[in-house]
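User: Let's play a game. I give you a shape written as tokens, and you guess the letters that built it. Ready? Here's round one.
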């Protein structure tokens, strides 16, 4: 997948590894982590960027762990320098070579996520909307349902999903990846 190819390496850790004097940063805000802390109830990753020094990222839980939150995952970002960490209903994008440069995805709680590699777009859903990002940041955000908005697949130039309208009618949703306009 093109979005995942990059010049950096990421390794998932089970505990905070301070060996080698690497910087340890807590996210979503890229702040210093207590030197006594070894464990956290969230992802811990070691990043070896293509430029700069390695560092360890500790991701504190987003606070929305009900079944609707997708399982934790790492996504390469369209700029080929950043990565996206999805966990507990939130998502943080950070540069691998400058981890202090970070932002949170403007969806909460994140209920699903799809990468459209051929279009260099990553799309997130929350209960009512789909939100797309590209290398420049937020591309579009569209309200698509009154509840249960879910991403299903990328099909050509479109994103397919489902959602409920007024809590009773479950319907299919198709949007253009380029601008979020309805395709159906």
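Assistant: Ready! My guess for every position:
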């Amino acid at each position: 997948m093109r979005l995942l190819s990059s010049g950096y390496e990421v390794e998932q850790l089970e505990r905070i590894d301070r060996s080698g004097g690497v910087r340890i940063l807590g996210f979503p805000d890229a702040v210093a982590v207590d030197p006594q802390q070894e464990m956290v109830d969230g992802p811990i990753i070691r990043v070896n960027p293509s430029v700069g020094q390695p560092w360890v990222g500790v991701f504190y839980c987003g606070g929305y762990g009900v079944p609707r939150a997708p399982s934790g995952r790492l996504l390469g970002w369209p700029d080929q320098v950043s990565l996206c960490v999805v966990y507990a209903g939130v998502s943080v994008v950070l540069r691998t070579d400058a981890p202090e440069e970070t932002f949170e995805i403007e969806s909460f709680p994140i209920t699903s996520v799809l990468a459209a590699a051929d279009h260099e777009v990553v799309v997130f859903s929350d209960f009512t909307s789909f939100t797309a990002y590209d290398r420049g940041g937020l591309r579009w955000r569209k309200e698509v349902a009154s509840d249960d908005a879910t991403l299903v697949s990328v099909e050509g130039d479109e994103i397919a999903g489902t959602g409920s309208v007024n809590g009773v009618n479950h319907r299919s949703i198709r949007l253009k990846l380029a601008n979020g306009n309805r395709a159906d």
